[in-house]
Design a protein that fits this description.
It is a single chain. The protein has 86 residues and is mainly alpha-helical. The chain has three helices and no strands. It starts with a helix and ends with a helix.
Length: 86
């Protein structure tokens, strides 16, 4: 039972950070904040999906595919920001 609670706390933290970055994007219209918001929201939804699994396993391939997508968005945002500045 404590595992589900802690997983929910982590998921809520990811979603809260995603909304936090959305607020900064809304104020500045800087695409980097949008990339970060999308990444954290995807990761938060990924953690929420753990709650619906009988036995969540960190070694499941689809979990890593979602994480690669999430972190790839951050990398794409950094590349986009640097290309736009030059």
């Amino acid at each position: 039972m404590i595992d589900g609670f802690l997983l929910g706390v982590v998921a809520l933290a990811f979603l809260a950070v995603g909304v936090f970055f959305l607020r900064f994007w809304k104020n500045t219209r800087d695409a980097l904040f949008l990339f970060f918001a999308a990444s954290f929201l995807i990761e938060g939804l990924n953690r929420c999906s753990f709650l619906f699994l009988d036995k969540p396993n960190e070694g499941t391939p689809w979990i890593y595919i979602v994480r690669v997508l999430s972190y790839g968005l951050i990398l794409a945002g950094i590349v986009h920001k640097n290309r736009g500045a030059g």
